[in-house]
What we know:
Elements: E1 2-5, E2 8-11, H1 25-34, H2 39-50, E3 58-64, E4 71-77, H3 81-87, H4 90-98, H5 121-127, E5 134-142, E6 146-155, H6 163-180, H7 182-190, E7 198-202, E8 208-210, H8 225-235, E9 240-246, E10 256-263, H9 268-271, E11 274-280, H10 289-299, H11 304-311, H12 315-329, H13 334-344
Antiparallel strand pairs: 1-2, 3-4, 3-6, 5-6, 7-8, 7-11, 9-10, 10-11
Helix pairs in contact: 1-2, 1-6, 10-12, 10-13, 11-12, 12-13
Amino acid sequence: xxxxxxxxxxxxxxxxxxxxxxxxxxxxxxEIAAAxxxxxxxxxxxxxxxxxxxxxxxxxxxxxEPFDSGYVSLASTALDQSTVxxxxxxxxxxxxxxxxxxxxxxxxxxxxxxYPVEELPTWSECLIPTGIHExxxxxxxxxxxxxxxxxxxxxxxxxxxAEATRDHLGHLAPVIAQGIDPVRTLLTAxxxxxxxxxxxxxxxxxxxxxxxxxxxxxxxxxxSGVLDAARAAFTEGHIYTSFMWPRGGTHAPDGHVRVxxxxxxxxxxxxxxxxxxxxxxxxxxxxTPRELEVLGMLVEGWTNQEIASALVVAxxxxxxxxxxxxxxxGAASRTLAAVRAVRTGLFVPAGSMTSGDxxxx
Length: 361
């Protein structure tokens, strides 16, 4: 009996669910998982290769939102858009949580549940009406463990999957997780930041999470001015931003630290906007804490009068600061000084220091 699945008509499979696998399918999947490129492309390639080794009619891979309980669709095969949208919605996220598939566990099939699968809205409202009757679903975890996503292999066959098929999928799931892990891209970029001493993952709404393998710092606590400045860089669409931040207060009694902001790209940014790293300041070219502040205002295009008002100093004092900055940066104009400051990260973002932040050290 034929059934409609997505945009194509597929004959119900007559093959048994126990299949002969290639000598080492994990090897090819590992190569795909490690390949460069955008996450959706890698997800599609992983599903295409997986189909050579496991039987399914349709499949769905999603990224887990690290600061929420939701999922963002990454790749699918033989599913129409309405089905993908449903699977990416709150009802399926709830069903995943109810069945424990948001925890590190073995592949699960509807036949494993202690109640009829029709009691789950995802099945009664979405999958069964499209002809799907069985599945193997597995949470995708990176080492740590860290929840990175979810994968479901769907079939019209009403027979439960064989144990060998479950074992194969369980063996391959960590490889799939490695391939779709959005943190991996940020960690690769983070390695170019020499001597990074601390870092966090950052969401648009201010939540933070540890960056695997990198330490923490009070400057990266939720609500800090550093993270406010980092979120501003995200919203402005910058892929890479670097700037200075004073420790111990606006006059930097404990020196400066370099802040590097790395943004996710494409679908990654929807679940993981980016990472914020701290590293030693490096050579400040003799720029004083006040001159780094003034440079931040020049970057924003402020006039001397505006800078003087913000710093509560005389305009002639600002003019003296600007003159010293031009000499130290070897710039012929304030515009060129601002360009060089952005290029080298030698500025403190304008307006980002609050009275509370000045006490953080």
